[in-house]
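Ticket #4471: structure export looks truncated?
Reporter: QA, pipeline team
Priority: medium

Steps to reproduce: submit the single chain below to the structure queue and open the exported record.
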Amino acid sequence: MEFKYEPGVENIVPDTLSRRPDYPNPDPIELHNLSLSLSSDVRDQLVQDYENDPRLGPIYKGCLEGKVANGYRFENNLRYYTRRGTTTLAIPRKSSIRLTLLRDAHHSTTAGHFGFQKTFDNLRRFVYWPHIANDTQTYVATCDKSRNFNAVTVFVDKLTKLAHFVPSTTTATALDVAHQFFDNIFKLHGLPTSIISDRDTRFTSRFWQELHRMLDVKLALSTAYHPQTDGQTEVMNKTLKTMLRAFIDNKQSNWDQLLPSLEFAYNNAVNASTGFSPFFLNSGQHPRLPAALLSVPNSTVPTVDTFLNDQATTLTLAQDALQRAQDHQEEQANKRRRDHTFKVGDQVLLRATNITIPADSISPADKLRPQYLGPFTLLEQHSPVSFRVEVPPFYKIHDVFHVDVLRPYLPSPESLGSRSAAPPDPTIIDGADEYEVDEILKYRKYRRQHQFLLSWKGYGREADEWIPLSNLDHSAEMVAAFKQQRGLSF
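Actual output as written to the record:
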């Protein structure tokens, strides 16, 4: 048998047989196409706003006449703006549709009440109008739900130590916390057998009642109140504060945006009490990180029985380790603290409690201030329990400190390389030291002088300093920009 190709137009006989008219025709299939587009009301409103807009109106009329402006495109009576390879719908500056777009990008359930950057990213993918960034920043800053967060509700599993951090307020009621639990915890872990709270029994009872109502549960569950059960609440709060201090910005305005990342970091770290990370105890595996791409991939998949046995063994080991840790903590609590031994020339950190530095005036929460300042050098042993410390002159404090407020400074070993650059040397201008200004933080009028709180490039927050306007000749452009941003005129 030999197969030979023949073009379809010449292969008439088989083609005719395959299309015999007496073959039954199948029932026709109706296809329904669903497409998304702007409603006619929104489209008409945009067209009207185009015509009335002082900046875009002439461009719109030119588009109607076939004169397309540079960067703009005209399609279906709507104007599109192309910038850096991205085409977005142009919205008139004073169009009422802006408010709807801002609300959808910030308030909706798919937006999540995030901060400025995430809200702005949601918007600029699809639309553009003049000063869209400023409008977005103002909208987010004046959002009641977003700006009123001043506390964190912390949920911790007692065994695995898995934690969830939920932005909240200090006035949150039992009803509010129940909704937080339902929205953030129940969907992932289900209902717990008990709740241990650092709030009073009435609060915990109301929390349970509201949670039962939301779940439509008639079963009466008991509540547990142990304000000093094992100090887990205090330990968790202290850990969270430490993480926030490390990453929060100078104005403490981004702490709520840090919570998801810090929650991941905490749950991925090995807990000293259990010996395992909360992620591993909860799921039996570690989450994949970028560093995992460097390791050899594991193609073996354990059987269900093997996985369950390994997980049961891991949880048993964690329970034993947790009990040993609690016993050790109780034993250590009964011992006296051993004093540190310092000597002249040592590098130390100084506890920041009761020390006022200039930047404190822009830090709204004392609990998120740096806990320690430094490192500083011990210059002289003033007494058996106190040292003279080389603190900067702008601290304006007495330089002798008790050893209780000192802590040894541990520099990074050379094998790990330098983690932070040394502060830059000053520039000599007209025979005087000049330091480079990093940022202008705040303005005040003090003793009839215009003063600005400055941060210096390469230096920590403790070096921030109030400087008179008369001393800022070499930073005139930065001062002018700050005055314009704050609406200052003098």
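Status: closed, not a bug. The export was complete when the record was re-opened. Leaving a note from the reviewer for reference: The chain has 14 helices and 16 strands.
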